[in-house]
Amino acid sequence: MNTTAGTGEPIIVVGAGIAGMTAAFRLQQAGHPVRVLEAEDRAGGRMRTVERGGYHMDLAAILLIQNYTQMLDLVRDLGIEDTTLPTNNVVGIKRDGRVHRIRANKPTDLKRSGLMPWSSMPAMTRLQADLTKHQGRLRWDSDLGEVASLDTETAADYAERRLDKELRDYLVDPMSAMFFNSPPDLSVINFLFSMPAVNAEWFNFHDRVDTLTTNLAARLDVETNAEVTLVEEVAGGVRVHWSRPGEPDRVEEAAAAVVALPGPIAARLCPGLAPASLDYLENLPYVPDIHVYFGVDRKPSETATCVLFPTREHADLGVITFNHNFAPGRAPEGHALLTSYYRYPWAIRHWDTDDDTVVELTHEVHRQAWPELAKHIEAHQDMAYVQRWKNGVILRKPGDYARLREFNRGLDPRSRVQLAGDYLAFSATNSALVTGERAATRVRQVVTTGAVAAGRG
Fold first, then answer.
1. Residue 24 · residue 258 · CB < 8 Å
2. Could you count the other beta carbons within 10 Å of the beta carbon of residue 279?
3. Does an H or E element contain 449, and which?
């Protein structure tokens, strides 16, 4: 644990995910003593890795793209560039039982793969024109205020209006599965935002994705098993209440705080926020996620990093990732690690189902959706693991980004309690990181202004 002393006023960060620890690190760089309080028994949040029998299972963040410039800047500032490497970026999409493979940085593969008929070329040209037109507003470092004007239709409606049936069924629909969702429920902004991931180089970390959060935690004062119950702004600072089982409740004071937790939890801990802000946070439409990992003692022949399933191929299964194809170190030598992700209605139906049954249900889904792969997994399985996220991703329907814009505008930049998290921007790892940096900047401004005012007084 590195508790590098700063010369500025002390700051408390609540939540040791990528947003919170990025905020803490940037504040520490600026000279503030920072203390991070984390309710779990280890730091990392969704950018965490679990090991079972030599398999390294990245729990949420698995796909990292080269236009995550803020994440790559953080990697450089930590001096851990040698832990990253360019990775395989082949994406497969199932159609009529066949996998059509596309290199993410080669949009022309969409034409050559056989996934789309030549009659869809005009629609593909229109899609590329739209992406080019809006790319300046579809940025990871944005609060999406500029893009909210596009938030007027679902991904399905956009496909009907601007593309064609083929692209709707075999591109827009499977890309929506990356959000555990389907086009009729999803804002068009999510689809447009996801397309750069299919038009970019990818990178990852050797062995495990939590290399980044582990390195951050090693440089910060992180208190784990610390359940924060209240964050309140008081004259000249903040007061943070937290507890640990079997120990007396604690109260700590600091010049300011960053709360980097899912929206509904942030609302519960920060009752001093404006009523409109609290209402927005309490009603954020998170959807649950259940995904299932399988370790097998023989690699399947599939070369893609992930295979997406249009609804026409399977109503519930969204994606199967081949984690050993993403980056090295995910499986023991000669073995493979695969993960099956569902669209969120399946997760809702089976949220209370025990893990063993979820594994058996997933085998059955594999038999329906990809019989050859199902046989391979069942013949060579030597590990299965079920991961559940209650707050998987935010389900953004049309109008939600406009509401997000108003929420961001309603936050007080002068408050000594600042928020961070992926709900403040596009729901992705790099966006969460950016909100942490933004919160750190605001905190520095608030604390500096307060110190100057106090000095003048």
1. yes
2. 12
3. helix 429-456
Q: What is the C-alpha to C-alpha distance for residues 236 and 389, in angstroms, rounded to an integer?
A: 37
216 and 277 both lie in a single domain: yes
CATH code, domain carrying 173: 1.10.405
Q: How many domains does the chain have?
A: 2
Q: Name the residue range of residue 408's domain.
A: 11-47+211-284+397-456
Other residues' Cβ atoms within 10 Å of the Cβ of residue 251: 11
Give how far the C-alpha of residue 276 lies from the chain's centroid of Cα atoms, to the nearest Å.
25
With a pLDDT cut of 90, the percent of the chain lying above it is: 73
Rounded Cα distance between 175 and 259, Å, is 31
Residues 181 and 240 in one domain: no
User: Of how many residues is the chain composed?
Assistant: 457
Q: At what angle do helices 211-218 and 18-29 cross, to 10 degrees?
A: 40
Alpha-helical segments (H) within 284-383? 323-326, 344-349, 355-369, 371-380
pLDDT tens for 367-408 read 999 999 999 999 999 999 999 998 888 889 999 988 999 999
pLDDT in tens, 8-43: 899 999 999 999 999 999 999 999 999 999 999 999
- What is the spatial distance between Cα 258 and Cα 408, in angstroms, rounded to a whole number? 15
pTM above 0.90, yes or no: yes
Q: Tokens in use for 257?
A: 């705080």
Q: And the tokens for 417? A: 């309690």
- Show Cβ contacts of residue 183 under 8 Å, excluding neighbours closer than 6 positions: 154, 155, 156, 159, 168, 172, 173, 176, 191
- Between CA 92 and CA 117 the distance in angstroms is 17
Nearest to 228 by CA among 40, 388, 45, 87: 40
Within a domain: residue 338?
no
